[in-house]
Design brief:
Length: 267
């Protein structure tokens, strides 16, 4: 059976609109999809009450949907947590046959490297990158993370400037064990205010008028052009786990389009 190029999710499985998620990589008992922002990936406690991709996949597998069956994964489960607000590479593995144990053990052993790109305000941000090693803990009563030297787990995020685009800066953030909200929390602690962030800092939104050098906007046209939080998981390096899989990269058209618009606005 031919491996599908994308997996379809009809409404209302993941919301009011149907979705198609590109299949980035498939291996025995393993797959990577391109998850859009705004969609929950799994049944993490912070996603309580929300439909999620893993649940929708299991439902469609039970119904015998051919493109799900073609993945060769009988009982899909997530390898790592990825926030609903964050789009990008999302890994899943099969509970049957030991694949999930293999990949979750590799994740916990820090054998997988996760690379994020984030767009942040240039003002008041550090001139250069660096490391944030602050321990991350989960809040007892709210779906957010916090820095705690008593209950927090070891965490390390490395930040590097990729590009300055006038009032915004494109950053790279890498980590080998991303805790829930780790990159967002560490960015705020480092003085990097991510566009669309409201929980850990105030990064603001990007409006259409900010990308227009000349000409006036008609009334009602000055809309927000960033799709929520300006943070994407752009690649996952699995080389240490499976050399044949190697690096899985995501090409997100909406993300690329936003950056292209900003670059054109400063020329």
């Amino acid at each position: 059976m031919t491996t599908p190029e994308a997996i379809g999710f009809p409404s209302p499985l993941l919301g009011d609109k149907p979705l198609r998620m590109p299949v980035l990589r498939v291996a025995p008992g393993f797959a990577a999809l391109l998850k859009p922002p705004g969609v929950a990936w799994d049944d993490h406690p912070w996603n309580a009450g929300r439909p999620h991709v893993m649940g929708a996949m299991r439902e469609q597998l039970a119904a015998g949907k051919p493109e799900l069956v073609a993945l060769g994964i009988a009982k899909p489960a997530s390898v790592h947590y990825i926030e609903p607000e964050v789009g990008g590479v999302a890994l899943l593995a099969d509970r049957e046959g030991g694949a999930l144990d293999k990949w979750r053990n590799a994740f916990g052993s820090e054998f997988i490297t996760f690379t994020f790109h984030l767009l942040a305000l240039t003002a008041d941000a550090p001139e250069e990158g660096g490391e944030c090693p602050l321990p991350v803990s989960m809040h007892r009563d709210e779906p957010r993370a916090l820095v705690s030297h008593s209950t927090g787990k070891k965490s390390l995020t490395r930040f590097k400037v990729i590009e300055r685009i006038d009032r915004w800066t494109l950053w790279e953030a890498t980590t080998s064990l991303p805790r829930p909200h780790q990159v967002r929390l560490h960015a705020a602690e480092a003085g990097i205010r991510i566009v669309g962030e409201t929980l850990y800092s105030q990064g603001g939104d990007i409006r259409l008028s900010q990308t227009r050098r000349k000409g006036r906007l008609n009334k009602g046209e000055d809309k927000v052009i960033n799709d929520g939080l300006a943070l994407r998981l752009v690649s996952v390096d699995c080389s240490r786990v499976d050399a044949d899989i190697g690096v899985i990269a995501a090409e997100d058209e909406a993300w690329t389009g936003l950056l292209t618009r900003l670059r054109k606005s400063v020329k």
